Amino acid sequence: MSRATREAYRESLLPLLKRHPELMCLDSDTGLFSAEYAAAAGDQYLNLGIAEHNLMGTAAGMAACGRIPFVNTMATFATSRALEAIKIDIAYNKLPVRIMATHGGLSAGHLGPTHQALEDLAVMRVLPGMTVVVPADAAATEAFVEQSLNLDGPLYVRLGRKATPTLPAAPPPVIGQAQTLRQGGDVVLASCGPYPVLACLAAAEVLAGQGIEATVLNMHTLRPFDAETLVAAARPASLVVTLEEHWRGGGLGGAVAETLAEQAPTRVLRLGMPDKFVDEVGNQEHLLAHYDLTAERVVRAVRTALDTAARSGRNDRKECIA
């Protein structure tokens, strides 16, 4: 079954509003919330219009007065246009604002670079005290919304736009704990977000047929980062590959490389968007295929790295940037 993560968020929030009067839903004219939804939420819903900087400032003020605001806007506007307010008003003051950022990654691909969010994870994960999560499906989104009620400080949640497939059965996701979706001792495939996680699972199946067993990690929380699970998986492996719907700099690949460089030096291949603005027109699926953020790319990267190492007789494990 396919469901959109942003719709799962909307559907899970209303029951929480009814049970928790301290919660607020602050909107920026996103179109995600209907007039009927606003009426059902009553005084706990407020639409500030297309004014993202004001939106974050208002959320900070409410949080300072004991409310817990869920702030709705597109990821690119939250992490660029409103970044100063997030940094100074929210993160600096350690306020419990939940930034629910839709249209993450290439999910607004048809709207072009102005609406694509390929820098948001890098930006948000460096802010002190900011929790950063990327649900891989609707069920994870619902779980994270519920868990956020007991979370200290600010939270950034990257959501998609359209329906994406449900992940295969796995342990329930917990903020701050990576999910091990498959075990294998040869390589580690680490990813976050719906399409990258599914691509890594598909790649692991292909690699298994070629005699290469892969551990697949859903690193849904970029901060706080689950270094323990990553390091444990990486120690016996000869290669770690990351895949993300994000520019290669600063996102999941950066978090993985930084962690392993300090704790378990290992060869790392970072797969993501090339270092340029998108110059292709198309929807999310088209752009993912065009820029080769696919299972086939992961398989090729693993095979090329392992074959090259075998031919050269290398036994050392150095970071490699693909």
Write the layout of secondary structure elements.
Layout: E1 2-4, H1 5-19, E2 23-27, H2 35-41, E3 45-47, H3 52-64, E4 68-74, H4 75-81, H5 83-91, E5 98-102, H6 120-125, E6 131-133, H7 138-147, E7 155-158, E8 163-165, E9 179-182, E10 187-191, H8 194-209, E11 214-218, E12 221-223, H9 227-234, E13 239-247, H10 252-263, E14 268-273, H11 284-290, H12 295-312
Parallel strand pairs: 2-3, 2-4, 4-5, 5-7, 6-7, 10-11, 10-13, 13-14
Antiparallel strand pairs: 1-8, 6-12, 9-11
Helix pairs in contact: 1-7, 3-5, 8-12, 9-10
Describe this structure as you would to a colleague.
By secondary structure, the chain is of the alpha/beta class. Helix content is 40%, strand content 20%. It has helices at residues 5-19, 35-41, 52-64, 75-81, 83-91, 120-125, 138-147, 194-209, 227-234, 252-263, 284-290, 295-312; strands at 2-4, 23-27, 45-47, 68-74, 98-102, 131-133, 155-158, 163-165, 179-182, 187-191, 214-218, 221-223, 239-247, 268-273. Strands 3-2-4-5-7-6-12 form a seven-stranded mixed β-sheet, sandwiched between helices. Helix 1 packs parallel to helix 7 (138-147). The longest helix is centred in the last third of the chain and has 18 residues, at 295-312. The radius of gyration is 20 Å and the shape is globular. Mean pLDDT is 94; it is low at 316-322.
